[in-house]
Amino acid sequence: MVLWQLAKSSVITDLHEGVLPSELSFVQLRPSSLVISAVKAPEEGKGLIARFYNTEDHTVQADVSQCGPFRRAMIVNLNEETLRELRTEKGNKASLPVRGKGIMTLRFERA
User: Fold this and answer.
1) What CA–CA distance (Å, rounded) separates 104 from 94?
2) pTM here?
3) pLDDT digit string (tens) for 47-66?
4) How many CA atoms lie within 13 A of 85 on its CB side?
5) Cα–Cα distance for residue pair 102/98, rounded to 1 Å
């Protein structure tokens, strides 16, 4: 099932305190020379796919974090097949080198 094929629904509620902050990013990526080009659900299974590219001519160290904890973070190819697992920090951060002008696709599986 594709996300945009799901029926949309909304709920009207009063103004109240919530558990989420007023601003939230699904994925944060640093440094600024790395540009996110896609964030989507994986074709199979649960999780999150994030694709980004390096605008620089040289390798940079990517620091990637997700809004919530994840169980695993993996580098995957365009077919979303695992190439290698990444070591994670604090349950929601991973670091990896991205070659100059390179494209990287990551898969996060929620904890």
Assistant:
1) 13
2) 0.79
3) 999 999 999 999 999 999 98
4) 6
5) 6
